Amino acid sequence: MVELNAPRNRKCLRCGREEEWDDSVHGWTVAAEAGEPYCIHEWDVNGTHPTIAE
Ligand SMILES: [Zn+2]
Description:
Oligomer: single chain
Number of helices: 0
Number of domains: 1
Helix content: under 10%
Number of strands: 3
Bound molecules: zinc ion
């Protein structure tokens, strides 16, 4: 069995923006710090978590 372990939150390594996953909108919402709006965010989650194709 493959256990899906999608990240529930993430933080930008550059500006400190923190977001959490919102199931109701299927998207990321700001959890704490909004960070820098013009930052090219680099999240502290890597690409190993599976994404489900439509
Ligand atoms: Zn950022």
